[in-house]
Amino acid sequence: MNHRRTLTGTLLAAALLASGCTGSGGGSKAADAKAPDDPSKVSGTIKVLTHRTDIVQDGTMKKYAAEFNKIYPKVKVEFDAITDYEAEVKIRMNTKNYGDVLMIPGVIKKNDYPRFFASLGTQDELAEKYRFTGFTTVDGKVYGQSPMGATPGFLYNKRIWAEAGVTDWPTTPDEFLTALKAIKSKTDAVPYYTNFAAQWPLTHWTFVNGSVSCDTGATTALAETDPWGENGELRVGDTLLYDIVKQGLIEKDPTTTNWEESKPKLAKGEIATAWLGSWAVIQFRQAAEKAGADPDDIGFMPFPARVDGKACATANPDYNQAVSIHSKHKAAARAWVDWFTDKSGYAEDNLSIATLKNAPLPESLKPYEEQGVKLIELDDAKGGRVKEIDNASEVGIYAPEYRQDLVDLARGAKDGTLDDFLDDLGERWTEAQKTVGS
Amino acid sequence: MPATHTTEKVARPPSAAPPPPVPRPAPRSVRLWRKLTPWLFLAAPLALLVAFTYAPVVNMLAYSFTDWDGVSPELSYIGADNYVEIFTRPELFQVFFVSGYYLAASAVQIALALYFATVLSFNVRLRNFFKGVLFFPYLINGVAIGFVFLYFFQDGGTLDSVLALFGYESDRAWLGTSTSANISLASVSVWRYLGLNFVLFLGAIQSIPGELYEAAELDGASRWHQFRYIIAPGIKPVLSLSVILSISGSLSVFEIPYIMTGGATGTETFVIQTTDLAFRFNKTGLASAAAVVLLLIILAVTWVQRRLVPDDKVDLT
To answer: Chain A closest CA to B107's CA: distance in Å?
Structure first.
């Protein structure tokens, strides 16, 4: 008996000791990653953490690195492709070992950026040349740079929409619903595909934000007002989603949808529409080629809302590349970040909006120019606060749960009314606005 | 007097004098080694146990008193606030209703396992084959099972095709409504864990000496009587263990609903909810507290159960 007691004691003590060792990587001092002056002199091996497992595996990344080495011969670039990027990098960032260049995970609070990343320069200086600087700026300094940008919108099958007799983009949610109804009655296609089971496509509905009011301050409004209030951006978007589901314009069984299968289905015209982003166009075109369908059938349109007769599309950054504050080769790392944005052609290869302000729009967005769609960039000064409110309220505007509940509500798998549902979200949101310190 | 004498002798360092020939208790170093040996053998497993089980648990306990968000270098001690929050938010406990489905399912599971174990403990044709069939699902990775059954329940998937073979055109979305989804998921869990219960029961049944059956048969006992008076009392401890396992199991269901529905359509369980708190909303402190609460609930339930059904020694003679 006595023995056992001493044993438990030792175990507990050992466990306590062990737990003392784990803690958080300490508070580091701010640092800068300055761009090197002479490319031939920069040297070192840099490790790049990336979520693009696909292009690391098929060798595309190696090709980029080879191009990079033509200018910076002494820098060796290694890639670490991570499948579950967000979760894994979040844990690695508790240590000092998280590569030299990495994509800033979504969970890192904006105010913590100076603790984890080296600054790339002041916003005044960088904003002249690049888009999206506001998304990573803390106290006037920029900490990350997205190599490309995207705009949210509906991917649709042009052939099916034409067969249903809709050739002009709908300009109001009602027109949009009418168009989907026409598709349902005149074609065999599923008018709208929710991608309910894949979850993350539903979170894209949050990017409606800004398209309705065409206001660059939409994110600030999110932080300060009720987004599900009268005419709130998210209320308009969520109501459209609710109506689409409610009127039976979606796939038969949303709970077993399949994202990979949805690509060839949309290409072949079995699915007519899906709310995604401009980044998806290239994937769907590739799927079309594989399935033997016409890649040119894949079209892209903005949210059905118009301000002064013009549609608005928001340009959002992708993952922002940053230089780790613990990197031993900051100059080399910075060189990679700059080169990848300026010269790699990554944005073009992905049919995306370039980060360089003077670069042309990708070919897939040409119809936007013709139709006079206004491309705006939201002011992200309050972006960090929105995230804090989101976490505190547990609404999860960047998480799938509440939209899954919304879809369930609309198809009658859950009891309640839309108004109650949205009001409850608004209540929790505004409640959290009061408690979260600014 | 002799006593003092010996102590003095021991206390003195052994001088040049040769050791006395009388048999003495083994020298101190040998005795020490003898005591130490089992611990040396245990060192590796104990180190692993402490490093990967107890240390994280203690860590979790510590986090449950902080407001840590999982990444930030800053964390502050906030006392029992997390626990207060958990117990003042009744909606956090509503998810336990979902556990009811799994609890009901585990009753079915235990009954089925018991039935199969009894049948297969007698001489049946293809006995080993059926044992394999029943145990096999338990060996498959839970994530793989989740994906397989996602196809199984799909519209026009395996289940629908099989039903169509029998002339029944089902047109239902199996995961479509909360009730139907929970029943579907719970039956997947029955399929998966049946094997474990089955093997436990089979082992217990086979440890009952064969003469008992012979004697019973001579006395004219039927199979049912054999089950009722020999097998059932013989496996009582294993049975109560299975019940404990399935209750704690149904309170902490995770893999299958997490992979298949992600907790959508009213299939969210307490563990999924905790994961969401920790990794979706970055409330690591609160989630740790929720995990501690779940642990305490399971301990309490087990304790109550042990009180109600005490573990008696089995005596079949």
So the answer is: 27
Residue B212 main-chain phi, psi, to 5 deg: -60, -45
Helix pair angle (B127-139, B178-206), 10° resolution: 130
- Kindly report the nearest CA distance between residue B265 and chain A, in angstroms: 6
Which 98-157 residues of chain B touch chain A by CB within 8 A?
Answer: 150, 153-155, 157
Question: ∠ CA(B303), CA(B309), CA(B310), 5° rounding?
Answer: 80
- The torsion of the CA quartet B79, B83, B88, B93, rounded to 10 degrees, works out to 170
Asked if the Cβ–Cβ distance from B173 to A400 is below 8 Å, we say no
Domain edges within chain A: 39-147+319-354, 152-314
**How do the pLDDT tens digits run along chain A, 438 residues long?**
344 444 444 444 444 444 443 444 444 567 888 888 888 888 999 999 999 888 898 899 999 999 999 999 999 999 999 988 988 898 899 888 999 999 999 888 888 899 999 999 999 999 999 999 999 999 999 999 999 999 999 999 999 999 999 999 999 999 999 999 999 999 999 999 999 988 889 999 999 999 999 999 999 999 999 999 988 899 999 999 999 999 999 998 888 888 888 999 999 999 999 999 999 999 999 999 999 999 999 999 999 999 999 999 999 999 999 999 999 999 999 999 999 999 998 998 888 899 998 888 888 899 998 999 999 999 998 888 998 899 899 998 988 889 999 999 999 888 899 999 999 999 999 999 998 865
For A314, phi then psi, to 5°, come to -90, 135
> Measured between CB atoms, does A6 come within 8 Å of chain B?
no
CATH of A152-314, one of 3.40.190.10, 3.10.120.10, 3.40.50.150, 3.40.50.300: 3.40.190.10
Domains of chain B: 88-308 (1.10.3720.10)
The 3-state DSSP class for residue B140 equals coil
Task: Kindly report the CATH number that applies to the domain delimited by A39-147+319-354.
Answer: 3.40.190.10
B290 near A CB under 8 A:
no
* Segment 188-247 of chain B within 8 Å of chain A by CB: none
Q: Which of B175, B181, B282 sits opposite A391 (nearest CB)?
A: B282
B177 at A interface, C-beta within 8 A: yes
- In whole angstroms, how far apart are CA A326 and each of A122, A298, A330, A332? 20, 44, 9, 13
